[in-house]
Predict the 3D structure of the following.
Amino acid sequence: MLIGGYLGPLAIVLLGVVPAAAIAGVAPRLLRISLLLTLPIAISVVLVSVFTRAGSHVLFNIGPFDATAEGVDFAGQTLVRLLAISTSIGLFGLTTEPRSFVLDLERRGLSPRFAFVALATLEAVPAMVERAGVISSAQRARGLDTEGSVRARLRGVLPLVGPVILSSLTEVEERSLALEVRAFGRPGRRHLLWQIPDSGVQLAVRAALLLALLGSIVARITGSFPSLP
Amino acid sequence: MLELRSVSYRYAGYATEVLHEVDLRLSDGEIVGLVGPNEAGKSTLCLVASGLAPASIGGSLSGTLTLDGTPAAGLATHQLAERVVVGFQNPNTQRSGIAATVFEEIALGPMNLGLAVEDTVARTREAIARLKLDHLVLRDPTRLSGGQAQLVGIASLLAMRPRHVILDEPTAQLDPAGTRLVGEALRSLAGTGTSLLIAEHKTDLLDGLCTRIVVIDGGRIVLDGPTSEVFDDRRLAGLGIEPPARVRLGRLLGSRGVDPAVMAGALTDSAR
């Protein structure tokens, strides 16, 4: 009962996420982002749960819909869980630069292929946007109108599509060739350049978190943790 | 030795061949320049000589490519990479994208070969020293200028310590100092027995670097000979290839009645 219900998710947010966000100096941004992410789901959860959940304690009704105490309880528990999830993910996003994160994992032994796929995916959109900007400037220099009315903007977008896609494909092919030249596809073990120092505290925290995760799963399976009503 | 015998190549989906009956031999320690007009087939020849075409990009090839006596056909791309490397002209596509620093970028190839850490580090340091990149080792490879990225790309290839190196316009984004640096690095590499094929428009670089020049046009080798002989050939102008400044100056002075031997002596004296 300690971790489930309201107390567990709130404890995660108030004792874990909020202090960490405050230390990182991202608490206001985290709050804003989490609310923005959660709000649309939260509204639908509240409406659906409060008015459609069957229960014996009817608080009030709107037309044929009864708002029940059980529905309010369910919505509340769902909301604090959503809050815990969104703030945790938000904190990770605000404090961790994805490229640095993947590169650091690679230094610790993550497969270079996985790192390549992850980073190529992360960088694909910004790279295409940058390329589109360059091509757009070149097209404008040659008199193409890319500003003004919606119709003019649409007309301006069409000549960009072909060059952006084709140049992206060419670049992907050249990049994969350049990697093959450097034996990227060779099977077998690679010796890591780095031996990252791992302090006793870090080891202990990781072990504790892992144990907590396993404990949570076991407790949930055995029924020690409450599930949503 | 890298040898192409009667090689013709057609890209996948192309109706016609891009290379026709090409014969080319690179001896150990030899630096061969490859020149030709645009669309002559230089880049394709680089891909074929490296084994990437057709092993990686497909297409159909007739004739044979042998690397130190071993037929390249049937070798996996990582096995090819242990023998021959190829560098492309766009430095942005040379970057792996998975290295946090220039040092790690250059070390990626040796790491992929499964070498012990000490060997990887030794090769990386050697490549860095060859191209004088010490000041860049801790920089993020994504934040380099075009010229710096090109040097890092070349260093990444040299760190593989291949027997054969093929470079497609390796100095396209380099300033004169960077171009000279690459020239010195390649010359010293050839001194270790590595053979090099360099496709370049900068004939001045090739003039001072190569022992032999191959001219390609329309997918066929039309001239192949010692550097001075090929660059003196009047047919180059018809192919849109500008001879190096040495040749042009010699011709100009010759047309004004100056003895080329006197000019050469004067140039040597001024160099002192």
User: Anything to note?
Assistant: The radius of gyration of chain A is 25 Å.
